């Protein structure tokens, strides 16, 4: 059976659109050099945006569900590689495709997950054992509590070197290098 020419072009347009979308998912942020008045050159990073949500990529989110399948590709027809089972777990969104988001956990493991399994609520995971939560962002301030390795807490404000977290109703400041789920230079109020 011979395809009609109009159908052939439509099919190729769909194929090329899919290829373009896949390429957009893997292209990194492009460094841009800008010349300021006075001849100074500064390095700026162009923020990459998700093709579906127009939100920055990569970005941190959290797992909304207590159990979520993580697939090899963006669709129900793809094999399940992982099952995330920790509600509130911080994840890094690295790509978008339709209703699917490619995510990674703090160990770099992940895949594609359906968008309704994710929340914009920011959480972090404690990366060291026996981390002291301080009353102020100062290592000499009063210790409010201690957090264990792997503890999940809600992220509050962040200042250079410190972030405020909340877990089980206890709030305190921790060194930024003791948590995962926040960018190294990210500031929050």
From TrEMBL:
InterPro entries: DUF1058 (IPR010466). This is SH3-like domain-containing protein.
